[in-house]
């Protein structure tokens, strides 16, 4: 697995059922000093979502930051969409939130995040769909690809719940279809910045 | 750097402002774009330019577009811990005023205004209170005035109310008919619903409490600053401001004049000024 050689500024990840376990593999693989902002939508029962920061901060080399509306995006950070809000990325880039209706029965919605990432980061975005039920994220991943970004999908057969990756693959032809181990390798190979 | 889609969006909000005097020019672009995409699908348009043409030439569709641009669905006693904090920490200070004015800014279809009225009734303060509930969407205001909600939402409303420290049964405040509930008219008497824009209008009364939650997220930093400055001007000294859990005061030119009062529920107290 080698890196395609383009500059990636944002990685947007969508996951649902089985997502915490999958993210425990994928997020810690992102190396320290990676000048990339990582945005994650994970569908979870409401009471568990607020714990994501506590679960992931100790595991990750990148810094897990709390999402506050209109905060400037800091490269090298991981942002989880907060419970009951859509997370969007606006020009700046900065974080934006909305409480508009659920999309694909979901709020936060993967598609809402991905479409906003596509508009702001274009070819410097990477979208990744991991395990999950339902079809949220397929339209968003198509938007990332349409704007020139990279579309990555977890190989459905290797996912705890294949529906969400399979829906994405029905919608588009992904640039990469990978197992979790291959995604980890891909992430480890991302070019990092020399630490000052 | 600006794409054709960005430019189309700027032109559309300018067109709406000049034709209909609704000012979305300082709305956060990402969420506005999303809302307009949904509207484009509804109106069968393939681009924002096409939508702009229809909005300019067919005034009757503007009313419907406004629904897509503004309407928020809310719940009664949403974020019960916010109402619990009001009840336990703010109400004791509100009791010291002979009369109370409270502003629910961006009230949409009225759920928060009625929640506040119920809380004040339970705390024995409603009779000396006037709640101003404002929004820019005339349809939402009409629905708010009617005080009619889907009966399917009652279990959530009831659970939220109980967790907010409710001292009575929520069912004391509505009557149910078929698939709807209608809220008690005696609450309605203490609420003034009116048209007011945080983007273009000014302060209209002195308040002891302003509650504006999950409205600022739709604004850019400049409009957030304008709205927060209005709240600063409207509040009496030591008045209270409640905002959404993911919102902050940092873009206000008066941010220093507010002290955290209940940090985890985003309730602030105005300390500066006269």
TrEMBL record, chain A:
Residues 4-183 form the CheB-type methylesterase domain. It catalyses: [protein]-L-glutamate 5-O-methyl ester + H2O = L-glutamyl-[protein] + methanol + H(+). Gene3D superfamilies: Methylesterase CheB, C-terminal domain. InterPro entries: CheB_C (IPR035909), Sig_transdc_resp-reg_Me-estase (IPR000673). The active site is at residues 16, 43, 136. GO terms for molecular function: phosphorelay response regulator activity; protein-glutamate methylesterase activity. GO terms for biological process: chemotaxis. Its EC number is 3.1.1.61. Keywords: Chemotaxis, Hydrolase. CDD domains: CheB. GO terms for cellular component: cytoplasm. This is protein-glutamate methylesterase. It comes from Tahibacter aquaticus.
UniProtKB/TrEMBL annotation, chain B:
Keywords: Methyltransferase, Transferase. It comes from Tahibacter aquaticus. GO terms for biological process: methylation. Pfam families: CheR, CheR_N. GO terms for molecular function: S-adenosylmethionine-dependent methyltransferase activity. InterPro entries: Bact_Chemotaxis_MeTrfase, CheR_C, CheR_MeTrfase, CheR_N, SAM-dependent_MTases_sf. Residues 1-249 form the CheR-type methyltransferase domain. SUPFAM superfamilies: Chemotaxis receptor methyltransferase CheR, N-terminal domain, S-adenosyl-L-methionine-dependent methyltransferases. Signal peptide: none annotated. The keyword Methyltransferase applies. It comes from the Bacteria. This is CheR-type MCP methyltransferase.
